[in-house]
Structures are given as C-alpha cells and as structure tokens.
Design brief:
mainly alpha
Length: 118
C-alpha cells in the first residue's frame, strides 16, 4: 500500500515571458476598444443632432466625444509617463474627459449664442 504523503502536486510550468502582457499594454488595448467606437458613434450623433436641431442628442455626442478624447489622450500618457500607482492615471483620465466635455459645452454655448443651433 502506497502512502499518500509522498505524492507531490503536478509541477506548474514556468510562464513564458513572450506571452506575458503588461498592464500598460492591456490599458492601451482596452482604451482603444472604448475610444474608437465612442468617437465614431459620437460623430454620427453630432451629425444627427445638428441636422435635427436636437439638444439632447448633442449632449450625448459631447459625452461620447469626451470619452474618446480621454481614451486617446491617456493612451499617449501611459506610453510617456510611468507612475508607481494607478491613482495618477485615474485622475488624468477623469480630468481629460471632464475638461474636454466642458470645452465642448462651451462650444455649444457659443453656437447657441450665435443662433446657429436652438
């Protein structure tokens, strides 16, 4: 009768460094997957909102454009800046999105002031 104490668990193979994916690469891929459709749909909503003179559609387009701007800008930032923690990246993403949203809102306000949109 064999003793079960001598049985060792199967050995885990060492991970191949060629297949290791960094968090930086994962973020760039995820931000591109979010930013590109947001830009495309936002462009379509801007065209629709301006053609129908519909403020709600323009607001949705502003939000989508802000998301795409934040995604594309932070892709560049992640490539250039290395911080040891994630909090500065999160702050930059939020600031980029909020800043661009405010810029778009000012542009829409100027267009309303010039009576180009209702």
């Amino acid at each position: 009768m064999k003793s079960s104490h001598n049985v060792s668990p199967p050995a885990m193979p060492e991970p191949d460094e060629q297949w290791e994916i960094s968090g930086r690469s994962m973020y760039r891929a995820a931000s591109f997957a979010v930013a590109l459709p947001a830009f495309m749909i936002g462009t379509a909503l801007f065209m629709l909102g301006f053609s129908l003179n519909h403020a709600t559609i323009l607001q949705a387009a502003c939000i989508l454009y802000s998301i795409s701007f934040a995604g594309f800008l932070t892709r560049w930032l992640v490539n250039r800046q290395v911080w040891p923690r994630a909090l500065p990246y999160i702050v930059c993403i939020a600031a980029a999105g909020a800043g661009f949203y405010l810029l778009l809102q000012l542009a829409l306000l100027a267009l309303r002031h010039l009576h180009l949109i209702p």
